Amino acid sequence: MSSRSVMWNMLRNTSLCLVFMFLWFFSVKATVSYDSKAIIINGERRILISGSIHYPRSTPEMWPDLIQKAKDGGLDVIQTYVFWNGHEPSQGKFYFEGRYDLVQFIKLVKEAGLYVHLRIGPYVCAEWNFGGFPVWLKYIPGISFRTDNEPFKAAMETFTKKIVQMMKTEELFESQGGPIILAQIENEYGPMEYELGAPARAYTEYAAKMAVGLGTGVPWIMCKQDDAPDPIINTCNGFYCDWFSPNKAYKPKMWTEAWTGWFTEFGGPVPYRPAEDLAFSVAKFIQTGGSFINYYMYHGGTNFGRTAGGPFIATSYDYDAPIDEYGLLRQPKWGHLRDLHRAIKLCEPALVSGEQTVLSLGNNQEARVFKYKSGGCAAFLANYNSESFAKVAFGDMHYNLPPWSISILPDCKNTVFNTARVGSQKSQMKMVPLTEGFSWKSYNEEPVSYDDNSNTVIGLLEQLNITRDASDYLWYSTDVNIEPDEAFLKNGQYPVLTVLSAGHALHVFINGQLSGTVYGSLENPKLTLNSNVKLIAGINKISLLSIAVGLPNIGPHFETWNAGVLGPVMLSGLNEGRRDLSWQKWSYKVGLEGEVLSLHSLSGSSSVEWVEGSLVAQKQPLTWYKTVFSLPDVDNPLALDMGSMGKGQIWINGHSIGRYWPAYKASGTCGNCSYTGTYHEKKCLRNCGDASQRWYHIPRSWLNPSGNLLVIFEEWGGEPNGISLVSRTVESVCADIFEWQPTLLNYQRQASGVIDRPVRPKAHLKCSPGQKISSIKFASFGTPQGVCGSFVEGSCHAHKSYDAFEKRCIGLEACSVSIAPEVFGGDPCRNILKKLSVEAICS
Ligand code: GAL
């Protein structure tokens, strides 16, 4: 070989090597970084749309569909917390199966082609029991949570490292070719720092250093923490975050929790947030330079078992999220946000590289314009006035902006989307009973009486110290001796028993009879019982069933909060006046008899004698119910209607569905709620005066075709015959659309230079798969009023409004009708802005 060809070969080999190294670098070592404008993935700045789906709040069988629906809704990223107490239920014993199979969840997100934002915490808040901390953590000697405390730091570090290592082993970080592009350490620690001072600041430094030291190859964030140390990005959580800016000019503006609604507490009404305002808040964030937004929650799901925090957090964690608790699309929220995401993505090139200018368009109106070098331009036109429309001039055009809205113009000329103009359909859901009721058997357990030979001490003990949260229930029992000469035995003026408890709920049994129930609330978990008690001469059995309803998940040192009967416990109205029972002997029993016997399980349920038929207990406390049923032939998600019951827990085939408490009625003011004006969690409420939660989701995968064991424990008395299995389905679908409302189609036509008249927008109506549109409940093209479910005609109404839909939609699963006068028999009122409102029944 000539020296020339040797050289040539060497050169070729070297360049091949370089190509390989280059490819390897970018396929394996693709890194995620950031600058002032955005998160950078593979060298590209990105506007990222993310949504929270917490894996244990649904089942693995639901995950692929939820993730797909998130992708179809325009999401790039799925965000989840990591739930320490689910993964390490007892110290050193780990669990990563079933709903806690974190790796599987992340792999599914990757398969769908989405990224992951992993919020390791390990403190997570999240309305989750104990904020995600295992209860055993509280009992590590010398521990103090979330501060500069060695035992705490050691424990949180061990868990954080374990999770990071697990992700590395599975090659799940983006730097390894995986989907995780971001991680989070701690959670909203800023307010804690403010409260706790210097030790908290030291803890922040420590946590940041520890996390960064783990070498994940992806950026870390700290949310709601203004002093997040470099290189950690501090991010915003809230209903609005446009006002926010990160602590350093070289960090991007990120919104880790855009609250799509709010959580429900037992005793509280159900909050919801209008889609128009949510879209407005997101557009406002993006137009002020925001480049990452995460919906908290995108799918809220269910607090199965005893995972709800609080206290008093409901079992449903629906959150009014774009995907509802059952995994169905919540419309129009899901569709409206999808349209918003498309509009934002059309602006992405301008947003990530353009320079921003702000132009005033009026008193309460402005334009935010992003121009970039290649000549591109995107604009956001905002009307902040919450009362009135605004007509604004921008460029050489005029734009009509509805109140409290932002229009998006990806080419600085044509509107593709306005946050207050919902093009997507609205679905009204219903719960359809599938059974006439169940055939129940019942078993009553007895209140636990004082027993000298059992766990007996002088005085009253804190509840969590005894139960270690192995059960919600703790029995406090004592005896009271009443002399035959007590005056009340003759005059019938029974003494009053007063019990002070640190929470959360309490049933009092006197000589085996329920004689009082009290409970607190999320705002005030403490309670006081004052109840006349029918004592008899001789020994009286006093049994207090104290109940925890989820452990606190937020607040400085929430690990120190007490639960249970701490006293005093007093009897008044005796001959001697008052008798303090607090310092006599009490016996303690953790949990219910039925829990000890595992009555909820197939094997345990046969360990007692159940009664049936006319003997089945009605309105009786401490009652276990069981039945066996077959799975009905429907495809829709399932739930139990527990409206006739009091308070307790539900199990299906041994899986805990969660706590139920329909007897706790929602107090608050529910009224009409406008999308305009600043939103807060008390602004838009439903269910006032009704059960905070009546329906309880049963995941499909927990059911068999037949032989399903349903077990219920009722604490204070309910009507089991009122319980029914229901399916969730669409009742009706509505569209409420203005003529000439901006659409993606028109935008694309205009932007690509098609100059003829814009195409009319269409009303798209779609029932659930398997359903058909059976009738048109309402249709009016003109000036109809009201909202879906209660539309009424206005003064202008096209006489063929109904005909158009009846002809095109009846008998079909889905239909589309163009919103043009000729479709409805001609223009009913010229020169007036018209809209179409329609409601179609699905069956
Ligand atoms: C945030 C917290 C979340 C969740 C939310 C309310 O402050 O970070 O974990 O608790 O509030 O739903």
UniProtKB/TrEMBL annotation:
Top-level enzyme category: hydrolase
GO cellular component terms attached to this protein's record: plant-type cell wall
Residues annotated as domain SUEL-type lectin: 757-843
Gene Ontology biological process terms from the UniProt entry: carbohydrate metabolic process
Endpoints of the signal sequence: 1-30
Catalysed reaction, written as an equation: Hydrolysis of terminal non-reducing beta-D-galactose residues in beta-D-galactosides
GO molecular function: beta-galactosidase activity; carbohydrate binding
EC number(s) on file: 3.2.1.23
Keyword set includes Repeat: no
Keywords tagged on the record: Glycosidase, Hydrolase, Signal
InterPro entries, per database record: BetaGal_gal-bd (IPR048913), Galactose-bd-like_sf (IPR008979), GH (IPR017853), GHD (IPR041392), Gly_Hdrlase_35_cat (IPR031330), Glyco_hydro_35_CS (IPR019801), Glycoside_Hdrlase_35 (IPR001944), Lectin_gal-bd_dom (IPR000922)
Record bears the keyword Signal: yes
Superkingdom of origin: Eukaryota
PANTHER family according to UniProt: BETA-GALACTOSIDASE RELATED
Protein family (similarity comment): Belongs to the glycosyl hydrolase 35 family.
Protein name according to UniProt: Beta-galactosidase
